[in-house]
Amino acid sequence: MNRIGVTPEMVSRVIPVDPFDLVIFGGTGDLARRKILPALFRRFCAGQMPDDSRIIGAARSEMSESEYRDLVRDALAEFGKKHAEDKHAVEAFLKHLHYVAVDAMGDGGWKEMKALLRDEEGLVRAFYFSVGPSLFGPLAEQLRENGLADRETRIVVEKPFGHDLESARSLNEELAQHFYEDQIYRIDHYLGKETVQNLMAVRFGNMLFEPLWNAQYVDHIQITVAETVGVGGRGSYYDHSGAMRDMVQNHLMQLLCLIAMEPPAQFEADAVRDEKLKVIRALDPVDPDQIVRGQYTSDGSMPSYREDAENPTSKTESFIALKCYISNWRWANTPFYLRTGKRLSARASEIAVVFKETPHSIFGIDSGRHRNVLSIRLQPDEGMTLGVTIKEPGPGGMRLVDVPLDMSFADALGPDAEEVTDAYERLIMDVIRGNQTLFMRGDEVEAAWAWTDPLIEGWERRGDSPKPYDAGSGGPDDAAFLINRDGRRWRGIKI
Ligand code: NAD
Predict the structure, then answer these.
(1) What would the pLDDT profile of 40-70 be if each residue is shown by its tens digit?
(2) What domains can you pick out in the chain, each with its CATH number?
(3) CA nearest 298: which of 247, 230, 244?
(4) How far is ligand 1, taken at its centre, from the CA of residue 57, in Å?
(5) Which of 23, 131, 167 to mutate to test the pocket of ligand 1 (most atoms within 8 A of CB)?
(6) Angle CA(434)–CA(439)–CA(443) in degrees, nearest 5?
(7) Alpha-carbon radius of gyration of the chain
(8) CA of residue 454 to ligand 1 center, whole Å
(9) What are the Glucose-6-phosphate dehydrogenase C-terminal domain coordinates in residue numbering (predicted)?
């Protein structure tokens, strides 16, 4: 038992799922090797994968089943964390694997796939589209035409879901020709993070916070997702996207929704997603002077953004900071400051709810004015901190000091906490369970694009260039100015 009474048994308690056939299109690709297969392996080790479940890799390359198992064995050795040291577990897991070479754009492999899949009562059938978005529509069509999908079948689609509103709409339309919305699982892995769900537990499982969770008591909210990596190997893809499309439109907006939404009537997929959608629809347009875009320069040892992107005149942003407002009763006039970027000084993601100052200090001007801050850390050390004001210990009068009430999940849950925190594990198991709560609905994705599109069109029309910033810094100086001119400052997480 650890210091808050959570036992390893509680951490590792698994809720059984139905047996499944899970087909991973793109089963030889980077995402499958780094995330999806290791996540399935860890669920297998946790005892959550029923014995008669199967994972079927599907990709264009011709290879035998044993060659595919070799590929997955290597992937687990590289990305499987500590469980992968257990060779017996690895070999037992590999027995669940199969492989079919299929071409999403052609006829090859579909008969073999159909022959392999089982038609049994109570068996879940899911297809994970871990391929580029241009293949989402063709794959959905192939599944229908080849009789591989029925009303119960689920499909999982990866990001990016569209490049703008128009492309997201047409992707939604393509999928809707073959599948109902309740069969489509659009992944945003941020929603699978332990802390993100804890945000809902904290908000709606305690009496303490919700009465204060509004414009009357909250001064402002900051959402930061800072990365130290550059765009590296995916520079040319990223150059057509940028931080707004790659991070804000999906991850940061999802976090914003969970922070700002009204309490749903139940913790149930459509109830939660209805509330998130209302937040997106209540977002005001953002004035250009409330947006700062940046692009990292070289620090001598590492390439600049333009070198990474192989585009010497690129105007794509690798950093963005913006201030936005939600026009509803709860949040009227409360600023939300969002920032995200690459090649910053630290890898750190945090949501900070900064409460207002007390209306009057009974301790006199020397004691200063204090604010409570609830900080929800997504990485690197998942946890929450509530800053409270107390008396500085010792004699010498009433001096006040801010101290953290800190809960690091790793400390609180013990070393096994790592095992419950992988987003892909949770999300894939939710697909098998048929629970869409942590997946984005089509109308949510479209509403998010409808908000970001005019901002992007605005700077493209004006021909704005992003501000250069030093690699390893906290972003362009203008980002600090964006918040400082309101008499506020970015939270002191080192970025
Ligand atoms: P990848 O290029 O490494 O792999 C692509 C896979 O698709 C390969 O297995 C390939 O054989 C298969 N494929 C390509 N054309 C095919 C066809 N016509 N028919 C059947 N299979 C075909 O790509 P990836 O990095 O694994 O990314 C897959 C998807 O996941 C993309 O949509 C990407 O944007 C998204 N994604 C990737 C990451 C990541 O970290 N790699 C993160 C988030 C989202």
Answers:
(1) 999 999 999 999 999 999 999 999 999 999 9
(2) 8-158 (3.40.50.720), 191-421+441-484 (3.30.360.10)
(3) 230
(4) 12
(5) 131
(6) 115
(7) 24
(8) 29
(9) 200-491
